[in-house]
Amino acid sequence: MMMLDFKNREEYTFYLHMYLKEQEREKFRDDFLALHPIDQVEIFSELNVQKRKRVYEWIGPKEFAPIFRGMERNQQKQIVTELKESYTIKMFEEMAPDDMTDFFEEIPNHLTGYFLDRMDEQEAYAIKRLMSYEKKTAGSLMTTEYLTIQQEKTVADVFETLRTEGKDAEMIYYLYVVNENNQLMGVLSLKDVLTSSLHETVRQLMKKHVISVFPHTDQREVVQLIRDYDIVAIPVTTETNQMIGIVTVDDVMDVVEDEVTGDFEELAGAKGSINLEVHPIKAAMKRLPWLLLLMVFGMATASVVQHFEDTLAQLALLAIFIPLITDMGGNTGTQSLAVVVRQLTLEKLKHPTCRRMIKRELWTGLIMGIVCGLFAALLAQFYGFGNMALGLIVGTALFGTVVISTMTGTIIPIIINKLRIDPTVASGPFITTINDIVGLLLYFAIASSLAIYL
Fold it and tell me: What are phi and psi of 208, to 5 degrees?
């Protein structure tokens, strides 16, 4: 399998297009199938409908399956409309049940039923079983294609199992040891097999203490276990310890990507609109509720300025530093929010951890507040032509704003999480607007108190 680099991609792509145009089937097959599936997807995506149809004629369903797997969901839906029904069915049967489950959950139910009714009965059953599990659980992530062996077998038997069954398994780094009732007894790594005598038994080599999860285990907990124990797959068992599947590290990577994307969307107040496949109108409708809500909060900020209109009229120099106060409040609050949300989404924070985090962020806010406050005081004194009172007002207000904003960005998501609400709803724009209001109130309150010294 060859992977293209930037140097030879253009030339390689040129020849593949030429083979399609000149209808040189064998040359196209030899060069195209030698590529990594990721490169195949990229090149295939550049083809027009006519050339794609020629590829379907030259590439069999089994060969096209890994290409289909690497495509974006919307592209997959488009490709299915171009393929012949028999080709599509055979391709689906070549794909892993967990990959097909992900695809079927994104298309209308009547189409899912239509395809499942025409697929191999055993393949269809495996997919239906996975679809029965709740989304975002280990059951919905797992694959049923894994290797098992019994503990009385020898290493020689393990090699035979790898040779005969390994091609159909999603991964062969682990062989799971089960008894006659399919209950999980241990795990055997490929390293153990390769470094042992052919006559040694599985019982002698296997690790008896196996980390496993239930089908209903939350996907975030699965991610945490795979990361903490540094494993590439984790078995899924029933309440009676019967093995029903495994969750592999590549599935976990997809989960992490989805979770991070979702958190960024929430933090930006743009949930469901980051995907480039989303239509502009739909993306706008996703973002508008947040923007309209923030407009209301923005009026509260304007009300603060209006309330101190007399102070601002007498001391116009104060207006210069309003952006500084609001920007620093928003920036520090968002920083703390990102730190806390990351901890809340990847780990389950206990009370001692929450207290330690709040304490850490408080001290961080105090240090940042002192440094930023002193620097702002010097800047204000410079702009105020040596007016120490102006420097004191701006420096003190910025110190208070940074400390309060840091704590706002820390405490609000923790409280929301305690209420069993996704902490990412305490989004960046929301925290920023709150900190704008608090920062301006503090700034003008201090300015009003010290106005006589200006």
Answer: -80, -30
Q: Tens digit of pLDDT for each residue in 291-320? A: 677 677 777 777 877 777 777 766 777 888
CA distance 222 to 234: 8
Give the whole-angstrom CA distance, residue 447 versus residue 454.
Answer: 9
6-138 has which fold? MgtE N-terminal fold (1.25.60)
Q: Which residues pair with 187 in a beta bridge?
A: 176, 207
Question: Half-sphere exposure of 72 toward its Cβ, with a 13 Å CA cutoff?
Answer: 9
Q: Which of 215, 207, 214 is nearest to 231 (CA)?
A: 207
Q: Which helix (H) or strand (E) holds 152?
A: none
Q: Which residue has the tokens 């010290």?
A: 450
Question: Which part of the chain is CATH 1.10.357.20?
Answer: 280-453
The half-sphere exposure of 286 on its side-chain side, counting CA atoms within 13 A, is 16
Q: Is the model's pTM score more than 0.85?
A: no
Place of tokens 């040779």: 163
CATH 3.10.580.10 describes domain 148-255: yes
Strands in 174-178's sheet, in edge-to-edge order, are 148-149, 174-178, 184-189
Q: How confident is the model at residue 273 (pLDDT cuts 50, 70, 90)?
A: very low
Tokens coding 342: 């990351």
Tell how far CA 84 is from the center of its chain. 34
Torsional class of 23: left (φ above 0), alpha (ψ -120 to 50), beta (otherwise): left
CATH class as words, domain 280-453: mainly alpha
d(CA 343, CA 358): 12
How wide is the angle at C-alpha 65 spanned by C-alphas 62 and 69, nearest 5°?
A: 165
CA distance to 17, 77, 219, 275, per residue, from 272 (Å):
36, 19, 20, 7
Within the chain, all domains assigned CATH 1.25.60.10 are found at 6-138
Q: What is the DSSP letter of 273?
A: -
The single residue listed with the structure tokens 């020689």 is 156
